[in-house]
Amino acid sequence: MPLLRKQPFVRNTPPANLKPDDEVLFCEATKEVFTNYDDFFQRTILCNSLVWSCSVTGKSNLTFEEAVESEEKARKRIGNLPKPLKRGILWLAAHTKRGRIAEVADDVYDFTKQRYFKGEIIEAVINDQWCDAKITKIIPPTQAEIDQANEEDDEVTVVEKDGSPKKEKAASKTSVSGIPDHLFKYEVEEVEPDDEDMVMLHIIPAEDIKREKGVFTRDKLNLYLKNVIELDGMHFKVKEKVSKMYDLDKVRFEDIFAGTPPQFAETQNKKAVLNKNKKGQFVLDGWIKEQKVSQSKGSQQQSVKQKKQTAEELEAEMKRMREAQAKYKEDMKMKLEEEKKKRAEERAKEKERKKEEQKLVKDLIQEWNKRREDLECEDLKELPKPEPIHCHIPNHLFGDFVSILEFLNSFSDMLSLKNSYPGGLMFQELETALTEKEVPDGAFFEILSFMLLAVFDLQAEEMEEARADNDKSVLDEADRNILGKDEEIAQAIRAATEKANYTKKNLGIALRDCHMDIWSLTEILRLHLESSGAFRGHNLQNWRYQQRGGYRLSDDPGFQFCLDEPQILASLQENIVTDLPISDKLKILNCLMMQMLTYAGMRDEIDSRLDNMIEAGKELREATLQESRRIKEQLAEDKREKKEEQIKKKEENLKENADKSSEEKKETLTDRQKEALKQEEEKKEKEKTRKEELKRSEFLDKERELQTAIYEYQNKVYVHCLGRDRAYRRYWMFDAIPGIFVEHDDDEIGDCLETPTPWNPDAGPLTEEEAVIKAKQILANSTEADALQDNKLSEITKTYERKPALKQQVLNTNGGLEKNGEIKEENGTETKEVVERVPPWGRCLGNKDSCPVHSSILPRTKWAYFSSADQLDQLIESLNPRGLRERELRDRLISDRENIEYKLKKATKNVSMLIKTEEDIDKENEKCLEALKKKRERNSKYGGALALPVGTPMKDIVEISLRDQILELEEKIFMGSLGVLGVKDRDSWQNSLQTRSYEMGVDELTWGGEEGDKLTPEMLEGESRANTPDSNKRSSAGSNAAFNQSILVKQLSAAILQVGQMIKEDEKYLKSPLGEDEKDRRKRLKEEEKRRKEREAEEEDGVICEEKDPNSLTPFQRWEISLMSSTHLGQLFLHLTTLDNSIVWSKSIMNTKCRICRRKTDPDKMLLCDDCDRGHHLYCLKPKLKSVPSGDWFCSDCKPKERVRSPKKKVRRVFSSTEDEEDEEEDVRGDVEEDEEEDDLPLMEDDENDEDYRSIKKKKPKAKKKILQQEPEPEPKKKKKGGIANLLGKRKVKEESEEEEEEEENERRSSRVKKKKIVEEENKENTRSKRRRGDLDDDIELQFNVSGLEDLVKGMLNHKDGWPFDRPITKADAPDYHKIIKNPIDLGTIRSRLNGLVYKCNQEVLDDVRLMFKNCLQYNMEDAEEYQCALRLEKYFEKEISKMGLTEEPVKSKRNRRTM
Fold first, then answer.
1. Is residue 371 within 8 Å of 899, Cβ to Cβ?
2. Which residue, 369, 411, 485, 923, has most beta carbons within 10 Å?
3. In whole angstroms, what is the distance from residue 1234 CA to residue 516 CA?
4. How many Å apart are CA 1017 and CA 997, to the nearest integer?
5. Is the dihedral of CA 27, 31, 35, 41 positive or negative?
């Protein structure tokens, strides 16, 4: 509040009787209320009078508003003093003893101007540049430094009375604290360091420190002290309010500075001395003590008594003094120059010494912090001990286990893992798959089959891209570019190439197309591994060489697996893959994983992820750069706006000063307006801050999102090792299993060091203070430059040791006192050292046998585990930042700490999964065994190999399963009327297989065609008879087991052969791969005929060729030969499944369904067509049949067409033979056209006998063409035969019928002599009779052709343009579809309605299909892909229904052509 006439101003209080409705006068300046206008007017005049003064600065002659403004500016000016500086100033002001404010300000200013307080932000020279830093500690000088500084003060010379100079020491000019300010040093911490994670402290001398300009000035100090101190008696003291605010009573000098506290001079009470000579007057030096007055009187009296000198004496005295003074000046000048030169040299030496000291300190610190081999660091700390992993997976195999788990989860999208494992493959699932026993259909079968199919898919993708299927090139035995120079490798490639063609050659299909189940999986896996590295054509080889980066056949991981692990391949021949040990299972899975990683599709995926990671990194850098640019631009904009505001404000001030005399412009803003402007500015500032924070938060969100994306991409590209420690142990982080995993499984780290790792328990990091002390010691001990250099190099390499810690006494268990490793008995008679400091683990001992780092003999824990954030902190703390490996690991752990801690939170749940006791493992194994027993008990209800009791050898389970499958297949063939077993007694044959023996049931078995091999029952005897010559050859148990196994394989292969031979090839019950269609059969027969002729020609020339050509064999015959050459049960499973898949089961009576109602019910009332074998219920036919007709019965499609001639034969004799021939040719041509129309009917795709049906259809026009190729003018015969016309149909016509038909046709041509009109009438009559007969035969088809329409719908679904119509449109596909289309329909719905017998006639189906096309064209735009698909599919639909005869126009045109 301003002062009124230098007195406090008190506002008037409002009247007590003031009411809310009363009118008052308000003074804006003083915020007072008046009810009287005179008082208000006087106060207004008073506010505008120059009687006010500023209470802060003391400035007077001001108006009230000017005084208020002066106070605000002053408070704002002193408000920017830092708090640490304020606290120091107040402490100093509180300890002064002055009676004037100016003296207090002088004392405080003299002490503070070159000294800096703790916590104060100053500017310091760090790394040769001025940086903002915070003072953390003040280092006072030692007494030696203080004495040295005092000695360096200049000497002064005093001229005596005789004019001779005299040297005297000048009085020491020490400060109030007694210590010169330039001797202090300050420990500072940089405010904004380059590396925020590494906080470094620097020791800076006082010369290199300064405050920011304008922060501390004498004027600002005077202004501040006027407001915080007050006069208390004779001295000034700090105000009570301010003292409590800063708690000065508890503040010590050590809290703000260092050294001895300052001692300020005290202002004493002085008295004026009266002059006794003159009353009432004072002398000039009246403010002195009486002693000095008396002394002056004494000197005056002495001077009066001295004798006066003459003028000559005075002149001589003056001359002598002038000469002495000149000489003195000259001497002083020379001395000053010498001293100046000496001081310059000393300053140069001191500067050089300081420079050398700083360089030495820097070298010491750099040498200490220099990165070096971890095993050479002497300050190693004890690392935290991780928990060893102990679960069902052996510890040394855990790495292979995790690599497979990480691979499958990382590439789950590409491998479609979600289909088999929606939640991803978990640790427990893979662990169970590898450890379960006696479970051939368990989790390991699913994982292995999944991975094997993935390999086949990738392989097929490459072959399709390289067009390897059409490449018929074979391996050149002399091509060393493919085989290589190593003959062993070349031989292995040849064997692999032969194995790759095994299934294609013997089974007719590629290995990837073979049926895979729990029993055939082992053989498929073995064939795949043995065929790895095979030559599959030059196209694929060249493509792989280019796309895989110089890929060779020997680079295939499966090829290397076969070379390195032949024992596993041998085990696959004897056992199934699920019965292998865990190590072999992991090797197989790892081999398949490595194979998948070599394929181009997988490599492209990895490259794509790497590109995404790089792109995300670029985006992150770009976003960071943009944010930095935005902040820089924002700062520049703020600076520009501030500058503009200052210029604008200056202009306003100038304008106000220019117009100050004017009354109108003298008006200033009221307080309310100022408050409104202030609020507006604050609002703008808040809005600006809010926008800035919003932009910053957006950047931080984007940065966090990109960092997360980079981290995820990085984990998907590769599993990155976090780093290694001193013992070369690797540290890992996995996505599938949270935690920090430690791997100690590297044997390729070299030999031990020449000297063991040094260890000093007291060694520690070298601070800057310690480095300064060490450097001074080094410099003090050096005497010469050379010695200095040598000493520096030797001392730098020495290890700095800290002072040992204070020994602490504790009470031990024996009752004695223990002091840092020493135990003292209470009586003090005995002292002995018991406890010693143990060196940390991981040091090299120099002896490879006992070294924990380099030893290959000592036991190791290959895999261990950290699971908590506390262990992470301990690990970071114990890692040595000086080591090469541990520094890198430490930095990585610190940088990824957030992600690591997030995963470690989940790791606590997995501790029980990774760390188990032997009891836990035994209990879990018992639970699995109990579950297996219960499963076998449930399976016992159904029988089979999987119902055998637990503990049954897996070989027995495999054998019994194979026998069951043989019996099951034989039963299906027999019950389906597809064939009959060619044995004497079928029951005994079945019983022998069920009792794990074998009875052939025939005298011999033949296979492989006409010149094939034979097998008799004597060849299948399990053991040699007694007393036979070879009975002693197989004496050992191993040879007996091998022989019995080979006999068992031979017996079961013979049983499979018998089952396969139940189906005759000519009965068309076999399909691909063992079946042979008509085209392949004709091609084979043609080549066989060609080779037979070549063989005959060679025999005529005398060349005898006894080799049998394998290409002349049918696929089934090659299958027979391969079957009988099998050596183990896995091959038999593969042959048996191939046979099962080659049988046309749709022709089995057990699978037959009615062609009309599409149901399989009532098999006893099912009638089969003798041509196409399709079924028809007796009650579904129209007219219905009551019983099965005798003889052959054909359906409407296969029934031969009959031609009925008119009985009016006499009329034909009237016509000439020429006209009759023309009429006959026209009639035959019409029949040919009718047959060609039937040829165009769509093929049936629903059943498996479509190819047979197609071949039957194609035989019809051959008979017609045979008629057309007859001679036009045959010789007439005298006799003719009347009767019915020839039978023309789909089935073959017998030779006798054809001869009879030809005779009748010749007789008719020779006897026709009728006129043309009668011929036309006869033709019309024949046409009408033919139409009536056709309507009668096709009655079923004309009413409702269910089968044909179902085949049409299926053909449209399989069409390339049928994909938009396969299922109904949902809201997710098109939200507005059902708003536009009121009657949606699709092919899937039409097919369901056909199967459910919803439709009653053909037209309903056709209407729904046309409605589907109409909906599509209505909803989609013309340029849409679905629109174009609808147009193309509609054309296909119209074409097919025209072929089926379901449209009227095409039928009419054909009939017109036939009746013309």
1. no
2. 411
3. 48
4. 13
5. negative
Which region among 891-905, 1091-1105, 1156-1170 has the lowest average model confidence (pLDDT)? 1091-1105
Report which residue type is found at 320.
R
Average pLDDT rounded to a whole number, residues 1194-1216: 56
pLDDT, tens digit (0-9, with 9 covering 90-100), for 1317-1352: 443 444 444 444 444 434 434 444 445 778 888 889
* Residue 734 structure tokens: 């996995």
CA distances for 165 relative to 162, 323, 335, angstroms: 9, 12, 13
What tokens were used for 1454?
A: 């054909």
Say if residues 283 and 273 touch (Cβ distance below 8 Å).
yes
Q: How is residue 808 written in tokens? A: 């602490």
- Report the chain's mean pLDDT, rounded to a whole number: 76
Contact 621, 476 (CB under 8 A): no
* Alpha carbons within 13 A on the beta-carbon side of 65: 14
Helix (H) / strand (E) element for 420: namely helix 417-420
Query: Which has the closest alpha carbon to 405: 589, 599, 595?
Result: 589
Alpha helices in 766-910 (DSSP H): 768-781, 785-796, 869-878, 884-895, 897-907
Closest alpha carbon to 769 in 171, 1374, 361: 361
Q: What residue spans of 271-414 are helical by DSSP H?
A: 290-305, 311-369, 398-410
The neighbour count for residue 1391, using CB atoms within 10 Å, is 17
Task: Write phi, then psi, for 330 (nearest 5 degrees).
Answer: -65, -45
Give the strands of the sheet with 730-733, arranged side by side.
387-388, 863-866, 740-743, 730-733, 721-724
DSSP string, 644-660: HHHHHHHHHHHHHHHTT
Taking Cα atoms as reference points, which of 239, 275, 217 lies closest to residue 93? 239
**Could you give the CA distance from residue 1405 to residue 135 in angstroms, rounded to a whole number?**
93
Strands 121-125 and 130-139: antiparallel
Q: Could you tell me which residues come within 8 angstroms of residue 1455 by beta carbon, excluding any fewer than 6 positions away?
A: 1331
Q: What Cα–Cα distance (Å) separates residue 323 from each residue in 161, 333, 922? A: 13, 15, 118
3-state secondary structure 1374-1421: CCCHHHHCCCCCCHHHHHHHHHCCCCCCHHHHHHHHHHHHHHHHHHCC
CB-based contact 1078:1255 (threshold 8 Å): yes
Angle at which helix 538-547 crosses helix 443-466, to 10 degrees, equals 100
| Residue 740, beta-bridge partner list | 733, 866
Q: How many CB atoms lie within 10 A of CB 1354?
A: 18
CA 36/CA 50 separation, integer angstroms: 24
1368-1389 pLDDT per residue, tens? 998 878 888 888 898 999 998 9
0.85 exceeded by pTM:
no
Nearest CA to 967 among 804, 808, 1151, 1140? 1140
Per-residue pLDDT tens over the stretch 531-571: 998 888 888 888 888 888 788 888 899 999 999 999 999 99
Which residue stretches of 1107-1245 are H helix? 1115-1124, 1129-1142, 1217-1239
Burial class (CB in 10 A: 0-12, 13-18, 19+), 395: middle
Cα 940–944–947 angle (5° rounding)? 35
Report the C-alpha gap between 1341 and 371 in whole angstroms. 92
**Whether 412 contacts 418, CB under 8 Å:** yes
Assess contact for 1096 and 1117: CB atoms under 8 A: no
Number of H helices, E strands in the chain: 49, 29
521-530 helix and 582-598 helix, angle to the nearest 10 degrees: 60
Asked if residue 164 lies in contact with residue 324, where contact means CB atoms within 8 angstroms, the answer is yes
Sequence-distant (6+) residues with CB within 8 A of 229 are 93, 101, 104, 236, 237, 238, 239
Cβ within 8 Å of residue 988, ≥6 positions away: 999, 1001
Say whether the peptide bond before residue 1183 is cis (omega within 30 degrees of 0): yes
Look at the block and give the residue holding tokens 């094939």.
Answer: 1012
Residues 264, 97 contacting (CB under 8 angstroms) = yes
Q: And the tokens for 871?
A: 């262990």
